[in-house]
From TrEMBL:
UniProt xrefs under Pfam families: Profilin (PF00235)
Molecular function as annotated in GO: actin monomer binding
Identification of the protein by name: Profilin
Keywords in alphabetical order: Actin-binding, Cytoplasm, Cytoskeleton
SMART domains found in the cross-reference section: PROF
InterPro entries, sorted: PFN, PFN_euk, PFN_sf
Species classification: Eukaryota, Metazoa, Spiralia, Gnathifera, Rotifera
GO CC term (a single one): cell cortex
Amino acid sequence: MSGWDQYITNLTSQGITHAGIFGADGSRWAASPNFPSIDNLKDELPKAFSLQPSGIVVDREKYIYIRNDGTFAVFRKGADGMAIVKLNQAYIVSIGINQKPEILVGKTNKIGEYLKSCGY
């Protein structure tokens, strides 16, 4: 178990279905079991924070862009939500089945702020 796993466990213990931490290069630092695949992860995560993101494909299902504020981006697919928090060197991705993305942002951003304060 790596040191990053504790952050994933923290998120999933709060009811988040899937959580992952990925380096800016697309490398997987840690992820919950059965974390769904994100097409072209290395390219998609930075695009979530572009001026005109179109959405992100997760397990061949497109999550539609809702909003971003430069530090987090919010997506939705039906009743499911996704939040991506941008760190200095990585991204935290939280996916919630039947969860509003705004709830995911609050939980994910809390850990993101801590990791940013540690230089990540």
